[in-house]
Write a structure and sequence with these properties.
It is built from no helices and 20 strands. By secondary structure, the chain is an all-beta fold. β12 and β13 form a beta hairpin. About 10% of the residues are buried.
Length: about 290
């Protein structure tokens, strides 16, 4: 790039100095309106950006690259409400995000005459993402709290191009799945707290969380594509806590991932080296805790 110096010898290797300035205007406009004392609606439009970046680990001068800032326009409509003497709260929102010049690792031609390709960070894609979410909290009876939420996201690439290593031609990848974005997520929690005559308390809690199918790589040609495609899963947790009358001591027993659901929750692969690294949800586990407040 023109913003970088020529490579100079530096010990056993070489070094290049790069210098670039980026600036973006990121406004936000929002309005809200009270339909009633217990129902409020809002709307907002905002912009954001991710700073420009250089390729962090070049192994040759042809791999020194720069990507311009990634920009975003976000639009949101929402509603917040309380009913039943403020014992029921329901909030919801829908959104639409428009990304331009997304920074993605892609294949790009090396220096003229070099006859090869490099894996570089480039402004390779434009995309849109829309969705919605709803959440609630209800106090149905003395000591009870129930809450939950549901969210849906639908992302798609409007444009996504890179160079095909086999043919050297530009290939259209806009039909690829988004990586690391589940379509559906949900959660549900129920808690009961009983206060004894001596002012001590016993709290019972159970919750679950759901995550839909997710792709941790969207490269269908990768040898690890299937391995890094995680199925949807649900995890259940529960716990019991006893709190002394002066609120200074807490004694608890808890269980996490009680259904022992083992599913991939992150990972990446490097086909060149034939390696795939993944992390899994933690196994079923039980533990006890003691807390003291000064």
């Amino acid at each position: 790039p023109s913003s970088c110096s020529d490579a100079v010898a530096d010990g056993a290797g070489s070094s290049i100095n790069c210098d670039e300035d980026w600036d973006e205007f990121s406004p936000r406009i929002g309005i809200d309106y009270d339909f009633r004392d217990d129902i409020m609606g809002y709307a907002s439009i905002s912009a954001g950006f991710r700073s420009g970046v250089y390729n962090g680990r070049p192994t040759a001068t042809s791999q020194v690259s720069v990507a311009d800032p990634e920009t975003l326009w976000s639009y949101e409509l929402g509603l917040k409400s309380q009913f039943w003497n403020n014992r029921l709260q329901i909030n919801g929102a829908i959104f639409y995000n428009d990304y331009e010049d997304q920074q993605i690792l892609v294949n790009r031609p090396s220096d003229p005459g070099a006859g090869g390709l490099n894996l570089l960070v480039a402004n390779a894609a434009d995309s849109t993402m829309w969705g919605g979410e709803i959440e609630f909290t209800v106090l149905p009876a003395q000591g009870w709290t129930i809450s939950g939420g549901l969210a849906y996201i639908e992302p798609e690439y409007d444009e996504f191009e890179q160079i095909d290593r086999a043919t050297g031609e530009v290939e259209d990848l806009s039909d690829r799945e988004f990586s690391s974005v589940p379509d559906w997520t949900a959660n549900l929690m129920a808690q009961y707290q009983h206060e004894f005559s001596n002012a001590s308390k016993l709290r019972l809690r159970a919750d679950l969380s759901y995550k839909g199918e997710i792709f941790y790589t969207n490269d269908e040609a990768s040898t690890a594509f299937d391995r890094l495609n995680a199925d949807s899963y649900t995890i259940y947790n529960a716990g019991i806590t006893y709190i002394t009358a002066n609120d200074k001591w807490e004694f608890g027993v808890f269980g996490r991932n009680l259904n022992d659901e083992r599913e991939i929750r992150g990972g990446f692969n490097v086909d060149f080296f034939g390696t795939t690294t993944v992390s899994y949800t933690e196994p079923r586990r039980y533990f006890a805790s003691v807390k003291y407040r000064y």
